[in-house]
Amino acid sequence: MKGLGRRVTIGFLSIVALLFASGVISLFELSNLSNDTEIILSASRRNMELAKDMLKSAHEHSQAVLHVAIFDEYAQKDVCRRVMSDLDGNIATARSEAVDATRLDSLQLSASNLREITEQFIFTEQPAEVQLQTIGVAEPIEDGELVALRGKLWYDEHYKPAYEVLVDQVQNFMTHTHSSLAPRAEQLNKNAYRSVAPVFISLVVMIAIVLMFYYFIRIYCVRPVERINSSLSNYLSYRLPFSVKGDLLDELKELAEGIERLIGLSKLNRQ
Prior knowledge:
Elements: H1 3-69, H2 77-97, H3 105-121, H4 128-134, H5 143-179, H6 181-238, H7 250-270
């Protein structure tokens, strides 16, 4: 492939290569953006599910403790242990999946405090009178009212404050989950811009290349052909000498030289 054909081919191949490169880069960036979005949304959904499970376990624990402490339903002790174990498991899972596990220290501490308070009262075998003295009741009370009173006093003064602290910590965890989405969303915006930027840059460069290519075609192809055609028309119509003004390159120069030889042969044949 010689001069003019090579230039045209290189021009078109440059445009194709630029479009291909920009497409590959954009596809790569969009794939990363999609993966990042899925990771962020999955982590957020997972944290919200864990928080809901924590609140559910805390509520079930509160209900079971009420039945044990006030209504003396000792069958609920197993429920207390089970839901507290579920709560600990959810907190451990959240810590293992968290970027900064120290944010869950307060939540774990409040759960441990609630467990300790519960075990000291419910799972420690003490006479009811001793437990009443522990929570500040010294006067003797009839057996029928003893269990309900000691349980209510303990629940209101010891368990309920610890339970409310735990619920607040779980809600703080949920709030932090929502607030952590803001910087991640900002990062997604940056990634989205980065995925669009190659397309925009490629478009600008491609327009520049097309304009340059148009200029090249116009100067080195169209105008020389117009000059050759004009000179040939003048020769055929007015028998003016065939002479192309300006320099010709590559195949167009060969074309003009071929026309001159053809005219020269035609003149020899007429002689």
